[in-house]
Each structure stands twice: as structure tokens, then as C-alpha cells.
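Why do we bother with holo predictions? Because pocket geometry can differ from the apo form. Keep that in mind while you read this record for pyridoxal-5'-phosphate.
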Amino acid sequence: MNESFSDVAAGLAAVRARMVAAARAAGRPVGDVTLVAVSKTHPEAAVRAAVAGGQMVFGENRVQEAAGKFAGVRVAAPGVRLHLIGGLQTNKADDAVRIADVIESLDRPKLADAIAAAADRAGRLPDLLVQVNIGDEAQKSGVPLDAADGFIRGCRARFGEKLRGLMCIPPAGEDPAPYFRALAAMGEAHGLAWLSMGMSGDFETAIRLGATHVRVGSAIFGARAKT
Ligand SMILES: *Cc1c(COP(=O)(O)O)cnc(C)c1O
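The structure, written out:
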């Protein structure tokens, strides 16, 4: 792992520089792309090092891990924003709605029901992204392609403006560009502004193809321990 202050600061600086270059090459304002620093598996100290380096938006894939890690961080840095990016079980919806600023993994009607009910109880509704199984892969989370349009329309009707956009993880080991293009087209067809796409290995391609949010972990924090 790679979580000393200077390593995290250097990782952040390198990723930011690559984002600037990618945005410039695409003729896009750099400010149009938000870096979501994915801190899953890395300790609170790594998050604090990133905050010290000016990073305020983080991504985590497990609700319990995020709750423990960010409670103290948020006291110290109230402006920190947390995106939940992992597959979400309905029985975690209450905690998710309480701690998340953005839930990026809304991918099925039962989860939409659970989030709506949890939001009623909590009196707060995070921003929401529909995760699309853009490569139509078996065993992968995300709404299947043939159900995506209907599900997105239903979420828009139910959640209104809180449905901000779409998220995807393209198939591993393939050129991600066609998948990023397909997600961008789907977002445009539905009039949705946010596109969360691109990770450490492909965020420049994603920025070229319209990403508004890139989710970058290992290029900032170093390799994750195998779990
Ligand atoms: C872990 C993860 C990332 C970050 O992956 P890196 O390759 O480390 O940048 C992005 N998105 C999701 C959904 C993840 O689970």
C-alpha cells in the first residue's frame, strides 16, 4: 500500500495533471470533470492525506466501511462528499441514504423502492446515478441493456432531479471507448447531465468521450491489497 502523505499527494497531482491534459485535448473545460478518489480498502489516514492535498470527493464501495472511515473525516472536513459506487443490498439502503451524497449504483426496481423508503425515513435523498450493465455481461451489476430505458424513465418519474445521470464499468480487457460512447448516448437521450465513467486505466478515454465524473483509486492511493 501507498498511503503516506507524500505518496498520496503525488498520486493526486499526477492524476490531476492527466485529467487536465485529457480535458484540454478534448476541448473541454477541466472544471467539467469531477475526480472521485476511490479510497476503498485504504485506511482513514489515506483519506486524510488526500484531503490535505485538496481532494474533497471520495468513492467507497461498501457502506459499512465507508461509514466507519468517513465519520471522523467529516468532522474535520465538513465539505467532504461521499459517493457510494459498489453494488448495494436493499438492507443497506437506510445507511446508504444517511451517509452518501451520491449513490452511483442504482440498478434495479427493488433497490429504487428501498432507497425511496429510506429517503422518506431519513428526510434526505442523495443524488442518484443509474448503473448500466453497458457490456450486457452475465454476473455484472447494472441494469441490463434491454431494461435500461424503462428503468431510467421510472427513476426519473420517481426521483425527479435527484436522478442526475448514469454510471458504467465496461467489460475488462476490451477497448472501453465503444462502451463509453454508448453510455454517453443513453445519457443524452434521457437528458441526464452526469456521466460517471473511467477508472485508473481508462479515465483519459472517458474524459474524451464526455465523462463528468471519473472514479480513480489505484492511480492515487496505490495498489489495493487483494481481498
Ligand atoms: C474500485 C473501483 C474503481 C477504482 O478502480 P481503480 O482501477 O483502482 O481506479 C472505480 N469504480 C468502481 C465501481 C470501483 O469499484
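The pocket of pyridoxal-5'-phosphate is lined by residues 38, 40, 61, 85-86, 169, 199-201, 215-219 (CB under 6 Å).
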